[in-house]
Amino acid sequence: MKIEAKSLERLKESVEKVVGRTISTPRDFNILSIHIYNLTKEHLSSTTLKRLWGYQLDQKDSSPRILTLDTLARAAGYKDYASFQTQALEDTGSESYFINNKHLYTSNLCMDDKIRLTWKPNRCVTIQYKGRDMFKVVDSVNSKLDVGDMFQCAMFIHGEPLILSHLIREGAPAMDYVCGRTDGITFDKL
């Protein structure tokens, strides 16, 4: 099977999207190795991943083995690398796709838990869970969301846009709001 550079780059981007981070430091490769194992129950060493991402260059042939590519494709939500090549490259611009990214359901939160949301270019908002899928903005940096705004949300997904339903702001009618429309959001439970 021919391994095309474009396909390999798309596979690495797909894996990074699932993990919710750009892979660029030694620590990132260790985290990636753990994520891949958790998703596939197959082990890829951080050294193998560094070589594949071009972080570690050595004298060995750097052409990846098909078993390695199959494991990465499974981590990205595909049956194997051949399926990834067929589906992912055809799906460019597709209106629907499966999501394997890190996610958080509000049903797993406790009252007053806090979450930090970030999205490009430099937005950072801290929200507090108020029950029944409702959140209150408690801190906002470079965002159009104001401290005190309330909204409804059932799920947060790394790398995907976040739609805030029924945004309530003092003196304004309820509205909806989208965070990270192009590149999606990242989140951390505090």
What is the structure about, briefly put?
The protein has 190 residues and is α+β, with helices and mostly antiparallel strands. It has helices at 5-19, 26-40, 46-53, 66-75, 81-90, and strands at 103-105, 114-119, 123-131, 134-141, 150-152, 155-157, 162-168, 175-179, 185-189. It starts with a helix and ends with a strand.
Can you lay out the helices and strands and say which pair or pack?
Blueprint: H1 5-19, H2 26-40, H3 46-53, H4 66-75, H5 81-90, E1 103-105, E2 114-119, E3 123-131, E4 134-141, E5 150-152, E6 155-157, E7 162-168, E8 175-179, E9 185-189
Antiparallel strand pairs: 1-6, 2-3, 2-9, 3-4, 4-5, 5-7, 7-8
Helix pairs in contact: 1-4, 2-3, 2-4, 4-5
Beta percentage is 25-35%
Domain module tally: 2
The averaged pLDDT comes out at 85
| C-alpha end-to-end distance | 45 Å
- Give the uncertain stretches in residue-range form: none
Percentage of helical residues?
Answer: 25-40%
Largest beta-sheet details: 7 strands, antiparallel
Element string (H = helix, E = strand): HHHHHEEEEEEEEE
Q: Strand order, biggest sheet?
A: 8-7-5-4-3-2-9
